[in-house]
Specification:
The complex is a heterodimer of chains A (about 450) and B (about 500). Chain A has about 450 residues and is an alpha/beta fold. Chain A is about 45% helix and about 15% strand. Classes of the chains: A alpha/beta (about 450), B alpha/beta (about 500).
């Protein structure tokens, strides 16, 4: 007897829903899965997978805790100027003025006062992820392209492309000049886009860079500004790691470059947009706080309206407004945070050196960009993935392979150091040292 | 027809300077909106043409090979923004927003600005904020760093959370939603994706259920915000399906079928129906039979149903609310088509906290939404607060009861006032608004007449109520009046102001 098959046509979903652009099938995320299944714990699971693929900042957490303990009025309200009633209903996409002012002041402090931020130009979003997607919706049509220097944060493939329908054309940088962006590689990327019949709408840089862990030099920023002006396109500068530069003077924001040359400022103004967030510098990714700062009035207006899809809870705005307007606290926090990150960086670089591993000279961020190409069996992408598998499954270290960041050269890996205790970092380094030793002995034999 | 008739009046020169300028402007915007909506899809982008504003120093400039660029030291060629952005950047043309903007300029205050504009255009409920305020002061004594024995302290909250919401909040939300429907449904937390408000939830479903250029059928009158939220970035089209006062604005399958077929003839693929139940702006609740018919229709056409149930907990009448979830059987294969949107902005009045959700029976939708939730996640801080609040079931029970009662009281007063004016309203048992038939006060039974009345109400009577045309209502003269932010003293003032312009 024939078995009846249910031929009810299943209801279809959209291309966006079925798309692979969420990127969760890339190695970047497979390492996370390995971690989820066997997470390291100092006491309970000392041989588990150590998470070194998550750029999270936990080194200055105690400062936040301390502040909140001393200032309970930040987390409980009702007695303040804007009581509970107003906050409960407050869904104005302009955002709390006190919070915008506090953000502007915080961003100024991070840049050592070398740039001014107008609270009226700050648009709030629920995280930098939303900010980047929002800007892409605003600056580009579906099918247009953004130029992004490689290596870049793997999440961009998803955040900039998925729902927007916009393409990414890489600006291919290489190690010969420490992966710096040059006018030549910018031009090459632009021409590449043209040859693909794509209309370029802007350049998106991350400064300080993820995954390089290095700031972009002033000279390079000037060249990029000239380039976008020449091509009549936009510049998005994702500066979410600006407060994680190891010293204030090392980081130059595009805002500073704009302000230092007022005569050229007007040429560039309408093109420049900065993305910021509290997820990295303040170590509060759970709070979902991001911002777009644009010098372009139309972009500000549009972004503000579009932020309706991604507003920050008024409760969170209130707490952070309190915290960030306490400039004594913030300046102390920024300074301490920088120093602690610098120290961590020192530890990891030294530890890697002991294993004979070189890192790119870094001066910012929560990670270091290391060169493992000498350890590759084959100097190509497959070789890199083979080594990556060894790192994840044998050494039990979740480290991000350069290929997931679209790095043009195989063998580079991004390793995060700020989301763990110093002890855990030492454990991880010991594993690496041991592995390298074993490899060297194997060679000798 | 709806556009030509009002223009007649303008041409004939009736109306004062204000209306002579307001109405053509408004209609022009409407025309633009109408044309934009019915424009055929854009052809693939052609190579950039040179900018139209040459500078005097043209000869000095180096030109790049393919894309001419005319920037110079003197003038700046503005880097363009996208088409999507351009349409958003334009001033708000919908009267829904016009009214809101205008009232913000001159807001009524009993003491400080008694001649100001009374706001009846915002669907908000302030009637029970005192209860929540009280709960907060009693329950939020510990500072954040202490937490509940570290389980919910800063350490836990600061770090990256699942983008689709804490499981504790999903459990609490599911419990709350179940309580609202009298436990006739047991909502499953694992079928939920939490978003920063219902606004991104609706948009997300549009992204997941439809491609650019596809359409949703939306029974009218509908919430004006859908025209923005569902269309802006998704590129989908909303096809209004007109409901009549004779049916108390209940969607008819015949009308849906007609709209579906018309769309098909135009080459537009319909992907789903969007219903708001309880309805905004009418305030009625769909009958069980209607829900079954809608499901049958969706099955027949193989499309989805989005059911926005955001007012489910704000029932002031005696009718019982039936969720789409309730009519789906265990083994129902049609479950895959049903997606519910909910949020705390209305029933709990915490619109500032930005908490909404998608509730779906479709695994693929849940998977996609979970990933998309990264663009619209709720702050962990707020999630923690709401877990505490929603888990206090004794408080929630008291809150829901009190809320219902207080809305009823103001509703009764409001319609009592309307009754005295001789103004009728649609039968409604939910929401913070009354769908009022002001056609008796308009001079010509047309959209133009309605616009005139809107203008008179806003600028002369100084009351902002949302005209039916902003909600795509096919019958002129209907207005949505939100009453849940009014005190008992305000209501007679509102009625008096209406009377004043009615008598003129």
């Amino acid at each position: 007897m024939a078995i009846g098959i249910d031929l009810v046509p299943s209801v279809q979903l959209s291309r966006v829903a079925e798309s692979e652009k969420h990127g969760e099938n890339s190695p970047y995320f497979a390492g996370w899965k390995a971690y989820d299944e066997d997470p390291y714990h100092e006491v309970e699971n000392p041989s588990g997978v150590i998470q070194m693929g998550l750029a999270e900042n936990q080194v200055s957490f105690d400062l936040l805790e301390d502040y909140l303990e001393k200032h309970p009025e930040a987390s409980i309200w009702g007695k303040g100027a804007l009581g509970f009633r107003e906050k409960a209903l407050f869904q104005d996409y302009h955002g709390l003025l006190s919070f915008r002012k506090a953000m502007a002041s915080f961003m100024e402090q991070i840049r050592g006062g070398r740039a001014k931020f107008d609270s009226e130009r700050i648009v709030l979003t629920a995280g930098a992820t939303a900010a980047n997607e929002l800007l892409t919706f605003i600056l580009a049509n579906p099918g247009d392209a953004l130029l992004v220097p490689t290596p870049y944060y793997p999440g961009f493939d998803r955040d900039l492309r998925w729902r927007t329908g916009v393409r990414i054309v890489p600006i291919i940088c290489n190690s010969s000049n420490n992966f710096q962006i040059t006018p030549q590689v910018l031009e090459a990327a632009y021409e590449n886009a043209e040859s693909l019949n794509l209309r370029v709408r802007g350049v998106l840089i991350t400064n300080p860079s993820n995954p390089l862990g290095a700031t972009i030099q002033r000279q390079v920023l000037e060249e990029i500004l000239d380039f976008v002006a020449r091509k009549n396109i936009h510049l998005v500068s994702d500066e979410i790691y600006s407060g994680s530069a190891f010293s204030s003077s090392e980081f130059v924001s595009v805002a500073e470059v704009l302000e230092s040359r007022p005569d050229r400022h007007h040429r560039y103004r309408d093109r420049v947009h900065i993305v910021y967030s509290l997820s990295k510098d303040l170590g509060l990714p759970g709070f979902r706080v991001g911002t777009i700062y644009s010098y372009n009035d139309k972009v500000v207006t549009t972004a503000r309206r579009m932020s309706s899809f991604t507003l920050i809870s008024s409760q969170t705005q209130h707490l952070l407004a309190c915290m960030l307007s306490d400039t004594e606290f913030t300046s102390r926090y920024i300074e301490t945070n920088r120093a602690r990150l610098k120290k961590r960086y020192g530890i990891i670089v030294e530890g890697l050196e002991k294993a004979g591993i070189e890192c790119l000279g870094g001066n910012a961020g929560l990670f270091c960009w290391m060169n493992l190409s000498p350890l590759l069996e084959e100097l190509d992408r497959e070789g890199e993935l083979e080594l990556w598998k060894t790192l994840v499954y044998e050494l039990k270290l979740n480290i991000s392979p350069g290929s997931s960041c679209h790095c043009s050269e195989p063998g580079w890996f991004r390793v995060c150091f700020a989301n763990m205790s110093e002890h855990t970092l030492e454990v991880a380094l010991a594993r690496i040292q041991k592995y390298v030793e074993q490899r060297m002995n194997a060679v000798i034999i | 027809m709806r556009l030509i008739v009002p223009l007649q009046g303008v041409v004939q020169g009736r109306g004062g300077l204000l209306m002579g300028s307001l109405i053509p402007c408004t209609l022009f915007y409407f025309l633009q909106l109408y044309l934009k909506r019915h424009r055929s899809p854009k052809p693939p982008s052609a190579p950039l043409s040179p900018y139209p504003s040459p500078s005097p120093n043209l000869s000095e400039l180096p030109r790049s090979a393919s894309r001419s660029n005319l920037s110079s030291r003197g003038s700046i060629s503005p880097a363009r923004i996208s088409n999507r952005a351009s349409s958003i950047a334009r001033p708000n043309s919908s009267l829904y927003y016009v009214g809101l903007d205008r009232s913000l300029e001159d807001p009524y205050d009993r003491l400080d600005n008694p001649e100001g504009i009374i706001q009846l255009g915002l669907s908000e409920n302030t009637l029970c904020l005192d209860l929540i305020d009280e709960w907060m002061s009693e329950n939020l004594n510990s500072s954040l760093s202490e937490g509940d024995g570290d389980e919910f302290g800063l350490a836990r909250l600061a770090t990256y959370q699942p983008f689709d919401g804490l499981m504790e909040l999903k459990v609490a939300m599911a419990g709350f939603m179940s309580q609202i429907v009298g436990d006739r449904v047991s909502f499953d937390p694992s079928q939920m994706v939490i978003t920063s408000g219902a606004t991104p939830a609706v948009e997300m479903l549009c992204f997941c259920l439809a491609d650019q250029g596809n359409a949703f059928l939306v029974p009218t009158p509908y919430y004006p915000g859908f025209d923005r939220d569902m269309i802006w970035r998704t590129g989908v089209e909303l096809i209004p399906v007109h409901c009549r006062s004779t049916d108390n604005f209940t969607p008819s399958i015949t009308a849906l079928d007609q709209a579906f077929n018309q769309a098909k003839k135009r080459g537009i693929r319909v992907r789903g129906i969007l219903i708001c139940n309880p309805s905004n702006p009418v305030g009625n609740i769909l009958l069980r039979e209607t829900l079954y018919s809608l499901l049958d229709f969706a099955r027949e056409k193989n499309i989805h149903i989005i059911s926005d149930e955001i007012y489910a907990g704000s029932i002031h009448g005696n009718e019982e609310f039936v969720s789409m979830a309730e009519i789906l059987g265990e083994e129902d294969t049609d479950k895959e088509r049903v997606h519910i949107v909910y949020g705390l902005s209305k029933d709990l009045s915490v619109s500032g906290f930005r908490v909404g959700c998608i509730y779906s029976f479709n695994e693929n939708i849940l998977a996609a939404s979970k990933r998309l939730a990264r663009f619209c996640s709720v702050s962990s801080l707020t999630q923690r607060l709401l877990v505490s609040l929603l888990s206090d079931s004794r408080f929630i029970t008291r809150y829901l009861e009190t809320n219902r009662r207080r809305i009823r009281e103001v509703y009764d007063m409001f319609v009592g006032g309307l009754r005295q004016l001789g103004v009728k309203w649609a039968e409604g048992s939910a929401g913070f608004y009354c769908w009022v038939d002001m056609s008796g006060l308009i001079r010509s039974y047309s959209e133009k007449g309605e616009l005139e009345l809107f203008d008179k109400l806003l600028n002369v009577a100084k009351i902002n109520m949302t005209p039916g045309s902003a909600c795509h209502c096919i019958e002129p003269g209907w207005f949505r009046c939100c009453f849940a932010t009014l005190t008992p003293e305000d209501i007679p003032i509102v009625m008096e102001r209406i009377r004043r312009i009615a008598d003129r």
